[in-house]
Amino acid sequence: MTKRWSISIALILAACGEPGPAPLGDAGALPDASPPTTCGAPGATVGAACTVAAECSDGCFCNGEEACVEGRCEAGTAPCTDEHECTDDVCVEAARTCVFGPDSERCQDDDACNGREVCSADLGCLPAPALLDCSDGDPCTVDECDPTTGCGSRTVLRDADADGAPDARCGGDDCNDALASIGPAREEICDNGIDDDCDGLRDYAEPSCVATNDTCATARAVPGSGSYSGTTVGLAADGTSSCAALGTDAFYSFRIDAPRRVRIAVWTPVDTVVSLRLRSECADPDPTRDVRCANNGGGGAIVVDEPELAAGEYVIRVATAVPVAFGVELSITAPGTPVRGDRCDAELVDITGSTVIAGDFALYDDDLATTCGEAGSLPEVVHRLRLDRPMDVVLEASLGMTPIVFRGVTLEVRRTCDDESTSLGCAMPDAQHDPLFEDQGVSRLRYAPLPAGDYFVIIERRQSFPTYELRATITEPVPRLEGDACGTAVDITNRTATLEARRLVGSGSHGTRFEADYLSNCGGQGTLFYPDAVFRFEVETTSDVMLDVDWLGDNAHLFVQADCGSVASELLCLDTPRSYGPPLLHSLPPGDYFVITRAGAYHAPISARATLLPPTPRPDNDRCEDAIEIGDGASRIDTLYGFQDDVEACWAGRDALYRLTLDRESAVSALVESFDPFSPVTMGLLESDCATPVADECVPRALDRVLPAGTYFLAVQGYQETDFRLDVFVDPI
């Protein structure tokens, strides 16, 4: 230590210009040479005498840094050793550096199912980033993983609710694979409104169900508002009613603790009486004891409505001319409030869990109009669906107890109850009987999956049939085959993709691999009979897109949507293949688009390609807002080249639009003629909204009529791009 301190002082003095002591000779303990920088003889200095560590360096990196300990050189510690067993510790002498090479094979735990473990040079062995994905995309196979061999699938029938009965969609006989309480091995529960044993007979339609509510004393107590099943089969005539004297009867009781509005609806195909009494006066033979009484006069719906019924216990008597099964719909609300489910602001029945609900339209008013339902004042009922995570949802609505099943009901799902523009699909069954399907009377909507959120399910009556049944099947999402759903859409951006024929099979009782999921604006509003395939293309910069799709069959449809599955986002919809060539979408902005095809030929392959082209400007009068004014008459030679299909005037096809502004009543004549005899054009006259036909006005070539003052639109339409001549004459009256 004294020697080092002296040397430090000498160096400082030398730096300041002062003379220092004479330098030590080579025999001294401190060398003035630097350690070697090359590795010539590794370990050669070990054991040699030393005074400082620099005397011990052998110039090698990979055997560590030698040290001077008590006057002798000792070997260093190798620098390239870490604590991780899965790394190869390598020292590179020439580069004087360490390399730690990870070897993931040393981390494997011999369990293929939990994925391949990985080796990190910094952290050592880490778990696999993901479990082994053994899904084959087929919901009707059981996907398995063996720890030794890895993935494998067993072709067995899917049984999602594990009740021992396979799913009907996969060829099994379980009519509801979301609820283990429903299946062919279950016993029928006689008063829950559900076909528990999947034999097609519900509640008291089942021979094993025998009613016990034959008298006032044995009246079935019901808890409040709801749908209840009943029958007069096997019962005697025990009571009286003030509005008619009929035979066999059944009794129901309920209690209210404050004045309430009570509505009772019953529908039967025979002469029926429904009466309401206080429980204390139920057995009194005096018919004037009735609070209310109604008779359906031979068959149909009965509604008993008491606007403000006093607190107490009451009995409902249902008497039928002949023994028959029926349903009772009971609504108990505060005075002046709507019936539960009657409109958007009423109390709504929640169908978040898989369920079956039956009801009677007689209780409900016409407050909403569905987007695909029939015209006229038709009542509807509203239910709420609330999902806290994405789920597969199948909604099926039918006429329930009504014997004429193929007419069905209208079914719609919306995000906002009273806003038609938020519709996520509207369905009603095809009135034409299709022998290929057992469920031709069912309106069906399917979402696989439906995102989390609140939804409103609307069921609207069709014609005069009064009852309905809603079946909601809500399950965890199952994998979908490639091209079978929005989430597995096949990319066709500047490429052709084909979905194999063997994977497009029928639905209904035939079992299915490709499901029927999506509705459209042109012929897709009916029941989802035919399976559909989904393709997608991506537009990076504004482009024209030409679609070349093979879609065959009498029930074929092709539609393009910006938001997959949303009818409101539809850009194009065609039914039955046309002869005018591949459809062209003009100037699409950047984004993802979905091409959904439905082929009526069950086993035909579907091929599709979306070719992106430079955008072409849309002609001036291709849209309603840019229509050419012809209110003073016109004689023009125009074209349909580059035009799109924007309005429904006469038929689907390209349309050129003209505005006809009349300041007073006028006689209007128009004549249109195509320059190509093989590419005909036609005309359609529209109201001021450029959407509603004027008295369904559609003429092949000529228009001649008197129009009141106002604004109208004339659409010249054609399937093919062609030139035409248009002459318009306006004669004010």
Q: What would the keywords be for this entry?
A:
733 residues, mainly beta, disordered N terminus, five-stranded mixed beta sheet, 1 helix
Terminal-residue CA separation: 125 Å
Number of alpha- plus pi-helical segments: 1
Strand order within the widest beta sheet:
9-11-16-13-14
Portion in beta strands: 35-45%
Average the pLDDT over all residues and give the rounded result.
81
Rg over C-alpha atoms, rounded to the nearest angstrom: 41 Å
Overall form = flat
Helical content (DSSP H or I, runs of 4+): under 10%
- This entry's quaternary arrangement is single chain
Major sheet, described briefly? 5 strands, mixed
Secondary structural class: mainly beta
What is the total tally of β strands? 44
Return residue spans where pLDDT drops below 50 for at least 5 consecutive residues: 1-32, 402-406, 431-439, 501-512
Walk me through this protein's architecture.
It is a single chain. With about 725 residues, this protein is mainly β. Helices cover about 0% and strands about 40% of the residues. The chain has 1 helix and 44 strands. The strands form 12 sheets. The chain has a 5-stranded mixed beta sheet, with no helix packed on it. It has a 5-stranded mixed beta sheet with strand order 18-20-25-22-23, with no helix packed on it. The protein has a 5-stranded mixed beta sheet with strand order 27-29-34-31-32, with no helix packed on it. A hairpin with a 4-residue loop joins β3 and β4. The protein is flat.
